[in-house]
Design brief:
By secondary structure, the chain is mainly β. It contains four helices and 13 strands. Strands 1-2-3-4-5-6-7-8-10-11-12-13 form a twelve-stranded antiparallel barrel. A hairpin with a 2-residue loop joins strand 6 and strand 7. It starts with a helix and ends with a strand.
């Protein structure tokens, strides 16, 4: 309750400041439908999914994939963002490859409240972002440090956004998604596992290509390398996880 009150207070104060920023009147909303392909770190079979996409930034409010929010402050060199994002991390026991893992509890997706700051340098954006679980699935936190770039090619038809960084995950976050409780151990026969906090590197790239009219092609991919405490979990069978999404977009 206390954490939720603090989050709502932060959103209220920063939203009030966002109203003073100039608005880009000609900004268009991009909506897309993507096919998602992923390689999970868990002992599960890989699946194909349908992923919606929303892109928008009018200098006050923004939508960026599974994330949305507003700018308490923004100029040519400094971007301060406050918002919320969908955390797709999950483990479904019925999808597990072993009978023992099928006896574990489900690890559910969640949503994170976040605040981030990015400095726009001549060599790209340098970003720090702090997140906390608002649905209290794990009750954990994450902090990312990243470099973001942008390249415009093919007569302004193709825009590429590379990103590289590291993510710190708290002990609570890792325990929920990678740990095994004593109750689960008794039920499944898998040894108890207590996860620690961790640091994991990642790389990602997104690209948007303008086709005819308002129609475009969008694709993104991401690779995360697991930390030792995540790799040693009984739930995982790989040292990394990856995802690729590709599909069509429309600018309204």
């Amino acid at each position: 309750m206390k954490k939720s009150f603090l989050i709502l207070s932060l959103f209220s104060v920063t939203l009030a400041h966002a109203g003073s920023l100039p608005v880009k009147q000609d900004e268009k909303l991009t909506v897309g439908v993507l096919a998602g392909f992923g390689s999970s770190e868990y002992h599960v079979d890989d699946k194909v999914s349908v992923v919606p996409l929303f892109l928008y930034d009018n200098n006050r409010f923004y939508l960026e994939g599974a994330e949305g929010g507003f700018y308490p402050y923004k100029d040519d060199k400094h971007w301060l963002r406050v918002g919320a994002s969908y955390d797709r991390q999950q483990f479904t026991p019925s999808d597990a490859n072993t009978d023992a893992l099928k006896q574990l509890d489900k690890r559910k997706t969640s949503a994170n409240a976040h605040i981030s700051y990015m400095y726009i340098s001549p060599f790209g954006g340098l970003e720090v972002k702090a997140m906390t679980d608002v649905f209290d699935r794990s009750g954990g936190q994450m902090v990312t440090l990243a470099h973001r770039g942008r390249f415009i090619l093919a007569d302004d038809k193709l825009t590429i956004y590379p990103k590289v960084g590291v993510t710190w995950q708290s002990k609570d976050y890792n325990q929920y998604y990678y740990g095994v409780s004593a109750e689960e151990s008794t039920r499944s026969g898998i040894a108890t596992y207590n996860a620690k906090d961790s640091i994991s590197p990642f790389v990602s790239v997104s690209a948007k290509y303008k086709l005819a009219g308002n129609v475009g092609l969008f694709a993104n991919g991401r690779m995360d390398w697991l930390s030792s405490t995540q790799k040693d979990s009984p739930l995982t069978d790989d040292s990394s996880k990856s995802s690729v999404n590709i599909g069509l977009t429309y600018d309204f």
